[in-house]
Design a protein that fits this description.
alpha+beta; single chain; 2 domains; eight-stranded mixed β-sheet; Fructose-1,6-Bisphosphatase, Chain A, domain 1; 23% strand; binds 2,5-anhydro-1,6-di-O-phosphono-D-glucitol; binds manganese (II) ion
């Protein structure tokens, strides 16, 4: 079988669609190289002294794990010097990170969730890295937070690395979704799935059901109909999975379909859901849509939301089209 490397794919994609100029290719290669380094650290576990907490909190008041901080540092260091970026922003940093003056600056903005699924680090369950790429606004001199606040539909690339039994990279640059598996011996990303497509129908859903008592009526109605199975209004049985790493749940949905939900609920009305628009919802929604699925916040297409703050949270319903459309329709009125 002919092996197609990530580099070969990016070059051929540029020839075909003109969507990956050299600077963007460099960016994607640098990010994916950093993900290899993170994957290596993740794989070492206790032997590499990477487990446990760092003793600090991030801007959203969440306890930071050692790997949250290490992965953030790895991505920052890898991406600073190449000349392809104007600035970076991360779930783990309060304000964005400009490119130091000693390096040339480029025209892209990179956003990331360096380590997704932190609660799974210490229990050896799948975790990941999520990233999103925007173009800096025309004529931008010194980057400001405002420059990052573009709707997800403006992303020029989005992807994630998943550190599971295999390390994989899933990538879109706006012409479908492809998956690469890390060949650990060779140190290279090899294409293992091309043009991934999510089935429109599914019998599998993902939600943290421990929050059921806080859900708003549209979500309660939708989930109770799924739970009612073959005897209920849906007339079929549904199965449930919840990994508590969005990357792992989304990866399952890309592979065999499903619907993933992290709704807003009545616990704390100041927090519209848990997931972050810029680092989680936008990149994942671009990937899901590019694979033929759908992604909404219950009423609006996620990629159409105009962001108002770097760390803003958003309710998320994404995956197989027909289920996302159904749960979204329950929110109407
Ligand atoms: P992070 O580890 O980057 O903070 O993200 C965790 C997110 C997401 O990956 C996952 O789907 C969700 O939080 C899990 O939330 P619960 O702990 O409420 O299940
Ligand atoms: Mn996350
Ligand atoms: Mn994270």
């Amino acid at each position: 079988m002919k092996r197609i490397s990530l580099t070969q794919h990016l070059i051929e994609e540029q020839r075909l669609h003109n969507t990956i100029p050299a600077e963007l290719r460099l960016l994607i290669e640098v990010v994916s190289r950093a993900c290899k380094t993170i994957s290596h650290a993740v794989g070492k576990g206790a032997l590499g002294d990477v487990l446990g907490v760092a003793g600090s909190e991030n801007v959203q008041g969440e306890v930071q794990k050692k790997l949250d901080i290490m992965s953030n540092e790895m991505l920052l260091l890898a991406n600073e010097w190449g000349g392809h970026l104007a600035a970076m922003a991360s779930e783990e940093m309060e304000s964005f990170h400009p490119i130091p003056n000693r390096y040339p600056k480029g025209e892209y903005l990179l956003l990331f969730d360096p380590l997704d699924g932190s609660s799974n680090i210490d229990v050896n369950v799948t975790i990941g890295t999520i990233f999103s790429v925007l173009k800096a606004p025309e004529g931008m001199k010194e980057p400001t937070e405002q420059d990052f606040l573009q709707p997800g539909s403006k992303q020029v690339a989005a992807g994630y690395a998943v550190y599971g039994p295999q390390t994989m990279l899933v990538l879109t640059t706006g012409n479908g979704v492809n998956c690469f598996t890390l060949d650990r011996e060779m140190g290279s990303w090899v294409m293992t799935q091309r043009d991934i497509s999510i089935p429109e129908d599914t019998a599998e859903y993902a939600i943290n059901a421990s929050n059921a008592r806080h859900w708003y009526p549209p979500v309660s109605r939708y989930i109770s109909e799924l739970e009612a199975g073959v005897e209920g209004p849906r007339g079929k049985n549904f199965n449930m999975r919840w990994i508590a790493s969005m990357v792992a749940d989304v990866h399952r949905i890309l592979t065999r379909g499903g619907v993933f939900m992290y709704p807003a609920d009545a616990r704390d009305p100041s927090k519209p859901g848990k997931l972050r628009l810029m680092y989680e919802a936008n990149p994942m929604s671009m990937i899901i849509e590019q694979a033929g699925g759908a992604a909404t916040d219950g009423s609006t297409r996620i990629l159409d939301i105009q962001p108002t703050a770097l760390h803003q949270r958003v309710p998320v319903f994404l995956g197989s089209k027909n289920e996302v459309e159904r749960v979204t329709s329950y929110h109407a009125g």
